[in-house]
Amino acid sequence: MLIDLIERLIIVQVTHKSVVLRVLYTFFMAVIISGCEPDNSKNMISFKQDAGLCNFQKGACSNTVDDTELSLRITPWNSPSEKPLALSLNSSVALENVKMRIEGRDMFMGIIPVNLSQETETSYKAPLIYGSCSSGYMVWQAIVSYEQGGVEKFTIFEFLADSEKAR
To answer: What is the H or E stretch that residue 111 is in?
Structure first.
């Protein structure tokens, strides 16, 4: 329908050579063309980081479960997407059957198992890599489960991928 209208305007303009139609045609084309320009303001979006998220720039992130302190550190501190990361997990006491997985907090991005290697009685290390999110603000959860005295326990660390984008 829009194309038919444009064709009719062109035919009338050519046939009658009207100044009013020429002005309307020019205005109409300017409106259509300006609507086709890319929106560059989307590239300028920055996000305010949730206060409860781990900030690895300040150091390790800690959680306490029944008098057992667990701390998580990811390097580099800004935890970039699609780049190799180094993860370290430490506990205040020896734990048994320690497991970890990474999941998206607000959207499903799959379940990423973390292959922890025990370094000492209370410290673990693992390589990590995860995908990027098109929204530009992706919060991940590191879910740590373990046994202590035959009882299974867990804790969750939440952190922002590509945290240099947050303000």
So the answer is: strand 111-114
Q: Are 158 and 140 spatial neighbours (Cβ–Cβ below 8 Å)?
A: yes
- What is the 8-class DSSP label of residue 110? -
- Report the amino acid identity of residue 101: R
Topology of the domain comprising 61-165 = Immunoglobulin-like (2.60.40)
What string of DSSP letters covers 94-121? --EEEEEEEEESSS---EEEE--EE-SS
What is the rounded distance in angstroms from the CA atom of residue 75 to the CA atom of residue 86? 5
User: Domain residues of the chain, as ranges?
Assistant: 2-37, 61-165
> Is the model more confident about 77 or about 32?
77
User: Which residues does residue 140 pair with via DSSP β-bridges, in sequence order?
Assistant: 104, 159
If phi over 0 gives left and psi between -120 and 50 gives alpha, with beta otherwise, what is residue 136? left
17 vs 133: CA distance, rounded Å: 54
Q: Is 118 helix (H, G, I), strand (E, B) or coil?
A: strand
What's the rounded Cα separation, in Å, for the pair 77 and 90?
Answer: 17
DSSP 146: E
* Of 43-57, 128-142, 149-163, highest mean pLDDT: 149-163
The answer to pTM > 0.70 is: no
